[in-house]
Amino acid sequence: MPFIENEMKLDFKDVLIRPKRSSLASRSQVSIEREYTFPNSKQTWSGVPIVAANMDTIGSFEVAAVLASRKCLTAIHKHYTVEQWKAFAEGPGKDIMTYIAVSTGILQKDMEKLAEILKAVPTVKMVCIDVANGYSEAFVQCIRDVRKTYPELTIMAGNVVTKEMTEELIFSGADIIKVGIGPGSVCTTRKQTGVGYPQLSAVMECADAAHGLGGRIISDGGCTCPGDVCKAFGAGADFVMLGGMLAGHQECAGEVVEQNGEYFKVFYGMSSDTAMKKHAGGVAEYRSSEGKTVKVPYRGPIDETIRDLHGGLRSACTYVGAATLKELPKRTTFIRVTQQLNNVFTESTKVNPTVVLPSDAKRQKTEA
Questions:
Q1: Could you report the per-residue pLDDT of 220-246, keeping only the tens digit for each?
Q2: At what angle do helices 163-171 and 199-212 cross, to 10 degrees?
Q3: DSSP character at residue 18
Q4: Which of 189, 305, 318, 332 is the catalytic position?
Q5: Catalytic annotation present for 187
Q6: Residue 38: what pLDDT?
């Protein structure tokens, strides 16, 4: 029989972080780096726990090179060839593999390609096993198989949104659980299927389950601004994965498109018809598209956006008296709100609106 849970579940937009007395004199006193030792791989990682999503316009080698300079992770999308991986690892990626994860699906061909990449680039120490629905037995079995084959490989796995499945994946060999079904800016899973879970509540509940077993979680999706990233960390996320917030930058894959004197980059979900036509020849007869394709205003180099995110995190920590990012969840109290932003003045009505122009080499004109 159908069942209704009456407890209210919350999203980032439903709360704000309450400020608290602080002894910090400056944002520069805050450390936003973390160090984790993972329960199954036994590996240790340190850095700033922001992750570029493994979407083919976001999780690129070019993005990874910039994020690594800020000690952030990139989950490289699964569509690079083994030869491209080798070229990257021997060139610009040689000294940044600490901040790189290789992505894979769960099909036999995915496992074979993963084996080839790990053989060709043994410095890769982290894998992201990624499916839309992390509740299938085939997915769980894949994690068990990868753990058995690669005992020292740190495994990210998802996506799920509930305590019991978070625990199941950690017991099966995963180290970091990706949390989020449907919150992404170009995801339409909730619209197409009616399935999902408000992201703030999902993060809080899954973090509680993971931390009880020594595991970690990634809040994947739903962040619209630096404040949402702060809320995700405050809710207990160990990492925050970003897609839409990093879209439209110079380093993102795809050409810059000019339309009526304005410049854009195309951004799409990995279950969209755009992605499936590109990588699978089209949408299979038995399924539907669960993603959007959008044009994002061109935003220039990605480094400034990462710097801005780091600044927002440090500022959030000073507002609650957290000297380190590790302290933020302990110092966070959420308050329920009906509004979090004042949108009277939008980007277009600013006195000096931000306009970023690409170099001529990166432009591609289209008809309006």
A1: 999 999 999 999 999 999 999 999 999
A2: 40
A3: P
A4: 189
A5: yes
A6: 98
